[in-house]
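Q: Predict the bound structure with uridine-5'-diphosphate.
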Amino acid sequence: MNSLTEVRVGLLSLERFESVLDEEQMREARATAEALRERLARRVVWNVNSTAVGGGVAEMLQSLLSYTRSAGIDTRWMVIEGNPEFFRITKRLHHALHGSPGDGSPLGAAERKIYEETARVNAVELASLVRPGDVVLLHDPQTAGMAAQLVGTGAHVVWRCHIGHDSTNAQVEEAWAFLRPYLDLIPAYIFTRDAYVPDFCDHGKSTIIRPSIDVFSPKNQELDDEAIRAILVHTGIVEGSVGEDQVPSFRRDDGTPSRVERRADVVRLGRAPSMETPLVVQVSRWDPLKDPVGVMRGFAKLVDGASPAQAELVLAGPNVSGVTDDPEGGATFDAVLAEWREMPHAVRSRIHLATLPIRDVAENAAIVNALQRHAAIVVQKSLHEGFGLTVTEAMWKSRPVVASAVGGIQDQIEDGVNGVLLEDPEDLAAFASVLRDLLLDPDRARRLGDAAHEQVRRNFLGVGHLLQYAHLIERLDGQARW
Ligand code: UDP
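A: Predicted complex:
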């Protein structure tokens, strides 16, 4: 039985970045790609994680690997196999690294035995393919246990952790104690931010690489006003008329034109907002840590204080009704709905709960794209956030973003310069007042949005991400004994 699956990776040319980078940056990107291609001649860069679809890591791998492959670098993506018990344990580790107990189950000797057995089977198979000098990037806790066999091949092994918690607690410590025996064998680590590096991961061995977004994907690609309007009207999120020639169109990753066919399910009282209504928007999974109830309560304070410009709120997330493997999402949405029903009529009529179709991932992305582009303000009022991709996405679209000063968001937004940080995300009066000020000051909103776009252009594009990988590989080669 095969334990590893190779994921098909597309080809995307780095030249696409010509439209968003300046000449100097483009020159650096081409030169680095060329140097890396020569350096890695006949060597393979292996990426190993536990899922080919769903979640930010898979999305990022698909796009980054497509660029490296088309630059002539032999990059492969392998997904490990495991039984449900293995994935329950790794989910438990995932929650613990976020500082929370998850299902509260033990992480003892019995769990370690199951974890190690699955890791070993996958590692032995991969080790038979890996040659000395190859680079193996192991992603997240699911793959750390594969270290011993892979280090033994003479490849450079790097462990990349995409999650983390700003401060440590008993849960975080327990997860690190579980993973440490494997990590001690690995010569290099990548973390998302400094605060996420555990003390025992010698800082000299750790590199910080922040997540990037693919600005040409359906989620982030340029959409003209007509397409935005057509998508939002077609899905039922806003009300308006669209002409025959206004098509809810977008381009798929491979460049083929497509259109949004499905509609959103929107819970609302009365009418949809018009295209002219300023929208405050939060797009998130239905997760208590994204604090959707807090967003509604904060917005209610804005309405109480005679909301300026008649703004309305759209809370959008994936459609949870048909998703059996996300019971937590369904329960959170139900809690949001229950709270919404309790709100006074005048408030409720200005809050729209939109669940977006997810059967076609690219179509879902195009709807998110249109909604973020149309928003007067994008909000991410999370109580905890490893790194908020929705924040980067909205900043790229030149939106003024109001987000909590938690986790990675603090590295994404510079308060008052390219967005607004909420020092205390639970202070709803302060949240309402920030929204009010921004709605009343469109010039400031525009300035923040413009600076936000520039911040992403400089720091959060895939091309910068690849440069950091190139530097890391150069460094590892310098330390190699082979
Ligand atoms: N997202 C989406 N459709 C939805 C809700 C969210 O595509 O209905 C995307 C969102 O655009 C972002 C990702 O899911 O790219 C969420 O990443 P983030 O880092 O913000 O939060 P996470 O869900 O990883 O905690």
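A: The radius of gyration is 23 Å.
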